[in-house]
Specification:
The protein is an alpha+beta fold. Helices cover about 35% and strands about 20% of the residues. The radius of gyration is 31 Å and the shape is elongated.
Length: about 400
């Protein structure tokens, strides 16, 4: 057809149809041939080829050599064809992929997986093309998904860690920003936090009790929760703030619709990133869905301080208290008053006093030992633990209901 609408016709109809269908198949991704009909017709006594294109279900379609970029995706505006804007491309992806960020096609198709491949190999889990399809890193249209983007070196989502002096965000002591594969971010973030998770010693006579400021298992679960359940459709970073008395983990994205904080505390799990969680499960980083918060709380069963869980419509925050912070203050005060450490005989007297207290009351909690004996939290835990390990006492219940009984 001429630009003025007159028919010029085609001499080689079959050859033209073959060239058109081959060009469409070779140049456009994902495969659009099922939405294109190419047929011959006659107009004004001249042979023509009609190409009918229906709306596809896997938009945006793009030029194979350009990718899902401004120069690769085109839209029709009136009588002209123009490059699509970022907003138009993102809207197309959202319309065809639903609300699942991880299942949508990645805007960046030039992805590498060096770090993730090494991580899978270390965990003895296969990570070839077949596994990438099974794990939903490669979609049905043979393109990388956003899940693949999250595990690639090209991932732009970050974890920002900062260490502050004291208990306020006034003075920075150190900071670190991590990008790239989420698996590498997880490993590096944990190692960074562990450097500031000090081991403090308390002496009771000749015995030494080493206690970390934070249970490593609680840190691990809080970090996993922040990475697995984050809403990656937002560009804001995951924040980890380390203070003298606590660590705060702030994750972008609130609770999944229909789930309350009470549900989460009971162990109910509604996954925002189901495929990402499945990968972490296969890598044995998480054992089961919905157990992370429960494990964090269990790590603090024997301590007076407890984790704090807070949520808003767009954020989730876990605060882990420093176990040794208040105990060290109290111990310093006690040492100043008492003027030294206890002897072996003193320790035996205390253990006997704990046993007598348990016999008189029938059962005791850690607070009873602290109050009656006038000892610190750490000393009370040491006494109760030794009596339990020796089989003198047995403990029943968890968290607030944890009590110690004489083992008769």
């Amino acid at each position: 057809m001429n630009d003025d609408g007159t028919v010029c016709g085609i001499d080689d109809v079959d050859g033209t149809m073959l060239r058109v269908t081959n060009a469409i198949r070779a140049a456009v991704r994902p495969d659009i041939t099922m939405f294109v009909e190419c047929r011959s017709d006659v107009m004004d006594e001249r042979s023509i080829v009609c190409v009918i294109v229906r709306r596809g279900t896997a938009r945006p379609y793009y030029l194979h050599g350009k990718g899902i970029r401004l120069e690769g995706v085109y839209v029709r505006q009136g009588a002209s064809t123009v490059p699509a804007t970022d907003a138009v491309i993102l809207n197309m992806i959202k319309e065809t992929s639903g609300d699942s960020y991880e299942a949508a096609r990645s805007l960046n198709q030039n992805l590498t997986f060096i770090k993730s491949t090494g991580f899978f190999k270390k965990r003895k889990v296969k990570f070839g093309k077949a596994q990438m399809r099974t794990l939903h890193l490669i979609g049905e249209d043979d393109t990388y998904t956003n899940l693949a983007f999250l595990l690639s070196e090209q991932c732009t989502h970050t974890v920002k860690l900062a260490v502050f002096e004291g208990s306020k965000k006034s003075i920075f002591k150190d900071r670190l920003e991590l990008s790239g594969s989420l698996l590498e971010q997880l490993e590096e973030a944990f190692n960074y936090i562990d450097r500031y998770n000090r081991t403090r010693a308390e002496f009771s006579g000749l015995d030494r009790l080493d206690m970390r400021d934070y249970p490593p298992e609680a840190i691990r679960e809080a970090l996993l929760n922040a990475i697995v359940h984050r809403d990656y459709s937002f560009s804001a970073a995951t924040l980890v703030s380390i203070f003298d008395d606590r660590i705060e983990f702030v994750t972008v994205g609130g609770l999944v619709k229909g789930i309350t904080l009470d549900d989460v505390m009971l162990g109910v799990s509604a996954l925002r990133n189901q495929y990402l969680a499945n990968i972490f499960y296969r890598l044995r980083l998480i054992e089961a869905y919905g157990t992370g918060i429960l494990k964090i709380n269990e790590c603090y069963d024997d301590y007076a301080v407890k984790p704090l869980i807070e949520t808003t419509s767009n954020a989730f925050k876990i605060t882990l208290p420093n176990i040794n912070f208040r105990a060290e203050e109290q111990r310093t005060s006690n040492n100043t008053k008492a003027g030294g450490s206890t002897s072996v005989t003193k320790k035996e007297e205390r253990m006997n006093a704990v046993l007598e207290l348990c016999r008189s009351k029938g059962s005791i909690v850690r607070g009873d030992v602290e109050m009656v004996l006038g000892v610190s939290q750490s000393t009370a835990i040491l006494l109760l633990r030794e009596l339990t390990d020796d089989g003198v006492l047995i403990k029943k219940g968890k968290t607030k209901n944890l009590r110690y009984y004489e083992n008769k």
